[in-house]
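hey so u asked for the seq, here:
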Amino acid sequence: MKKILKITLIVLGVLVSVIALDTIQAKIFDNSPILKIRKDIKDGYVKYVDKGIFVNHYHCSNNEEATTWKWTKFTCPINVEDISLEDINDKIGDFIDGNPKDINNYAYYAIDTEKQVVVVGLVDNTENKQEEFITKVFSNYGSEYISYIKNNNLIEFRESKEIFEAKIITIENDFMTVEALKNSVSFKKGDKVKMKITHPTDGTNDFYVVGNKVKITFNGMVLTSNPPQITAIKIELI
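ran it, structure tokens below
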């Protein structure tokens, strides 16, 4: 029994020593740890990270490297000269594609070559929502990136909101189809429009009832289909 315990302690001692030496050499010489798992990073200015026991070794897109403690937040340095309208536009697109549940307030984005800005349409275009959008989209790229965008006014926010009145004509669990009651920017009186509603219903327990009249707010984007589809931001009973 004592022999087994002695062997166990020796093995543990060797293991702790190897981990300690590996961590020390990584920190002193700014190397990757030998005991590591490599993880490719798609966001920010990091190519990949070598994740060790106690340290992470970052390989940045500008070929710089850095070894940090695992509990330390690190952002690869950027060259602000590399920040272009196309780069900003692409990063917005990547965020929109990767966060479909986080874009209810978003309507569209595009480069305005005449004004040299990226135009972003928001339903709620208050300063708080603008700040929230920038923080969510660009948080992975560091405060320097965000500051450069703000200081150079590279994003122009515009309100993108449409409201129309309609009558509910069908209910399909979590979808409903309405008929426009008046002409609006996107629809004519009598047009049929389909949209996803905020919670499933059988059409009897709330105002999602066939025949009810509603006021619908959406982001102005209409999906070409039969009938056309929209994403409703707010549905109110008239």
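Residues 2-69 form one domain. The chain is about 25% helix and 30% strand.
lmk if thats what u needed
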